[in-house]
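Task: sequence design from structure.
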């Protein structure tokens, strides 16, 4: 933005729009000082090894980033073709569609697409970070998935990227999410106090293990812990490199 190191105070005079426009063009880099090494690759950062962690994602992460309107009107054949185009074998693509359709029979084909896209691009990284944390064996990690279908965008955004964060901060725009917001915010507060998200009346949330992958499923209707949710689907997706399906 044309500022020098001795002009820090000038940042306060810049318009927010200017700061935002600049921020989206740059990214943090490993500089040997502020960021001494790549974080979470190939291992978890040693500096936070003894600190517990919560990590998770939303079911429909990718709806927020989807600018292709055709994605909201797919059929299963089109999903299969798109998956094959991104490097998944035809056999595995068909198996994925079958598994998601069996586990979530009320989903539309487009719902299945957004689940697959989110699991392949985001959820796999949740699993990777959680398991890298476990390798340190010095602090617990708690994993969640947020699945409540929000009314945002006339319902088509569903459980979009960051949808859980306002609820964690007790910002509730829809009355049906009040109880869910209390549960999430209570878990976050308990974690901040005690290093564990467990709270009275909040339901047991065990620490994640590689063997059973305990995951808190946050939903307005019935939040609960599941062991290895979507394990069969993820076992297929984890065989393939990350692909930007968003």
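Answer:
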């Amino acid at each position: 933005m044309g500022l020098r190191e001795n002009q820090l105070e000038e940042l306060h005079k810049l318009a927010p729009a200017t700061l935002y426009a600049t921020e989206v063009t740059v990214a943090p880099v490993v500089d040997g000082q502020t960021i001494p090494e790549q974080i979470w690759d190939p291992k978890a950062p040693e500096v936070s090894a003894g600190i517990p962690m919560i990590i998770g994602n939303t079911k429909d992460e990718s709806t927020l980033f989807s600018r292709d309107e055709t994605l909201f009107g797919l059929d299963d054949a089109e999903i299969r073709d798109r998956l094959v185009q991104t490097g998944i074998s035809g056999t595995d693509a068909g198996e994925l569609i079958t598994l998601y359709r069996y586990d979530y029979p009320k989903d539309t084909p487009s719902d299945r697409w957004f689940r697959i896209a989110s699991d392949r691009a985001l959820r796999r990284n949740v699993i990777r970070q959680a398991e890298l944390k476990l390798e340190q064996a010095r602090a617990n990690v708690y994993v969640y998935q947020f699945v409540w279908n929000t009314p945002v965008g006339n319902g088509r955004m569903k459980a979009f990227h960051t949808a859980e964060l306002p609820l964690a901060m007790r910002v509730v725009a829809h009355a049906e999410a009040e109880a869910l917001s209390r549960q999430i915010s209570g878990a976050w507060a308990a974690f901040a106090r005690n290093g564990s998200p467990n709270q009275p009346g909040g339901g047991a949330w065990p620490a994640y293990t590689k063997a059973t992958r305990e995951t808190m499923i946050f939903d307005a209707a019935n939040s609960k812990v599941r062991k290895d949710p979507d394990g069969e689907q993820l076992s297929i997706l984890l065989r393939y490199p990350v692909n930007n399906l968003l």
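The chain has a mean pLDDT of 93.
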